[in-house]
Description:
This protein has helices spanning 47-55, 68-81, 93-102, 133-142, 161-172, 195-202, and strands spanning 37-41, 60-65, 86-90, 109-115, 153-158, 177-179, 208-214. By secondary structure, the chain is of the alpha/beta class. It has a 7-stranded mixed β-sheet, sandwiched between helices. It is globular. It starts with 36 loop residues before the first strand and ends with a strand.
Amino acid sequence: MPRVRVRQHVNPLSQKYQTPITPPVWEKIYSDLNQPFFLDIGAARGRFLLEMAQLQPDYNFLGLEIREPLVTEANRIRDELGLTNLHYLFCHVNPSLETVLASLPKNALNLVTIQFPDPWFKQRHGKRRIVQPQLVETLANYLNPNSWQQRGGVFLQSDVRFVIEEMSRHFAAHPAFFRETSTWLSENPFPVATEREITTLEQNQPVYRTWFDRATP
């Protein structure tokens, strides 16, 4: 089947993306809701989670993506592989994240990744970027406070330096998060690279990475 084509950019501030989604009945999707959750914000074509779900069957993986055709394609491939620990949702994360996380079992969220988000280079488009103070606040409220014991937390990476610096500032400003090191991580801590990461490294361009742990209450 040919690769589905979509616009690379959509305006997340468009009215059609502002209504929070109604979460599905998770018991009908995941075979074991007692497993910790791994959330990928901005999952794109979903290949990162697709591989991770096969490598780590003891985790439930959830990808959020604003381009609906990509979500449809990713869930189709998931079904073909018979994976019961993986799902993708079509939504704009900022209006919907609270609703989605509140529907999961208490303290289920253990890991969050935000990888190569759309940079929206123009200053006037800053509100279109994924990582905003409210998103950080929501993650602080729902990320398992004991996630550090299971090597959980928030992983950020980008090939645009001002984007990773801005994301890092938002997380560092919240008392629930602390950065492991002030220097960029030289390696991806996960065994799977995103398509964007692979392309960037093949072009000998830098990738900036950092990790935030959840501070204990």
